Amino acid sequence: MPRTAATLTASPVPRGAGHGRRRATAGVVLRSVLEHGPVARSTIARLTGLSPASVTDYCAHFTRLGLVREAEPPRRAKGAGRPHVPLDLDDSRFVVGGVHVAVPYTTVALLDLRGRVVRQRELKHGRTDPPWVLDRAARALAAMLAEVRDVRPLGVGVAAGGWVDRDSGVVVEHGLLGWRDVPVREMLGARTGLPVHVDGHARALVNGERLFGRARGSGSVLHLFVGNVVDAAFATHDEVHHGPRSQAGTIAHLPVPGGVEPCACGRTGCLQAELGERTLCRRARAARITDGVNPRHVLAAANAGDPVAAALLLERSRATGRAVGLLTDVLNPETVVVTEIGAMHREDCLAALREAVGAERAADVFPTSFPDSVLAVAGGSVVLDVLYRDPLGASAEAN
User: Fold this and answer.
1) CB within 10 Å: which end of the chain, N or C, has fewer?
2) Cα separation, 385 vs 18, whole angstroms
3) 3-class secondary-structure state, position 339
4) From CA 245, how far away is CA 254, in angstroms rounded?
């Protein structure tokens, strides 16, 4: 990599009741600036329930680190007293790397601290063995960092489907890629010299929606990811449920009533076999809509007026809606976010999905907030979640 991780000033952290509590409280303060900025320190104190002195200490620390800055104060009439100087997130100094490993290609991106994509590239897989894929991702990150000026990287987030153990940074099993027990955090960290964090893409996108998207402020969120891999994630307040070894959300082999697609597990009608992009593209090839394996070609045909392509997408969205309905019956989330190509890009598909969910819950169901950059945001959200959950720890790690 052409640059090392950002050297964040190791100034004294604010005093508190305990190290872990102090770090968690710092995250609450920084997320308040992200969500409400430009915002006065007094308003942060009111929103968080912290003392004004404590908020001032945390914000001074964040200013020294370069994470927040003072914004222009509002104009006040003469004699109205000294205006409060609001704080805002400083999104000009740092970026994070985002890597999403899909079946046909890897998406590599740089994002700012608001989750906005600064650079993005797709690297089609010539091979899928982990060293080859991760070497290319590291080189692409280095090239993009060389293109941007006056910013420094805080870390890299990696998202993938399948069974991903966040705590160890290992892709335990990804059947479609043929990956098993791949130490992604260790391998990519050695290649980049940056802190690396790894998680499943459905959980990563729950965090992206919670920080930067439609689910901000929601009490509970269900996210369903429908790509080549089909999986889900569930969060209540600020906590995403991971389960033992991060296996929560593994729904690929849930049975679909009336399903006819054979699954690699030996059964018929598993959710991933029915809804996966491989099935969509195979049906599109059989209908002579496309000769490839890219679902965006099916979408392009539908948008160009092909009625068969549109029908394939509508049926897939309806089936996705039925799956959402089953999951909402179990989890009863306040907000549902779906990443599925039809619902993301076509109003008729979104309407069909909502209709299949049912009238009582349809208004709670939304497509992803990041339709044009969802995979880049998935990767970046892994490390941005770490930053906003524990900015003091993330700063020390990047030092």
Assistant:
1) C
2) 22
3) strand
4) 20
